[in-house]
């Protein structure tokens, strides 16, 4: 399965991202990161398919947006933000994981429709 996160600060992007993802996977019980933040290079999204990687990136951006808005509501004082407890987070993860495949497919299908309206075309075929 997957895990959120990883941060890399380096120059050799392709090799470094590959090496970091493989290292992360080995250190995290076979879990590949869904998102990797790279200083000077931006965000890399991973997934078992283009749809999965797109979904990971989409929701990572939404999470960042929520964090910025929440912090702006409390003047940047993290101590004033009420966080979810571990039990609530675990329950949310369990519910999301049960619906993830169907959700990813529906989200990607909708995005392809939006892309097609812009004249863009994407293939769902994976490289061999």
Description of the structure:
The protein has 128 residues and is α/β, with parallel strands linked by helices. Helices cover 55% and strands 12% of the residues. The protein is built from three helices and five strands. Strands 2-4-5 form a three-stranded mixed sheet. Strands 1-3 form a two-stranded parallel sheet. A hairpin with a 2-residue loop joins strand 4 and strand 5 (42-45). The longest helix is centred in the C-terminal third of the chain and has 32 residues, at 86-117. The relative contact order is 0.11. The model has no long low-confidence stretch (mean pLDDT 80).
Assembly context of the chains = single chain
Category from helices, strands and their pairing? alpha/beta
Mean pLDDT: 80
Number of helices: 3
Beta-strand residue fraction: 5-15%
**Biggest sheet character:** 3 strands, mixed
Radius of gyration, whole Å:
17 Å
**Can you tell me the overall shape?**
globular
Terminal-residue CA separation: 21 Å
- The ordered H/E elements are EEHEEEHH
Major β-sheet strand ordering? 2-4-5
Summarize it.
This protein is 55% helix and 12% strand. It has helices at 13-27, 50-73, 86-117, and strands at 2-3, 7-9, 32-33, 35-39, 42-45. The two termini are 21 Å apart.
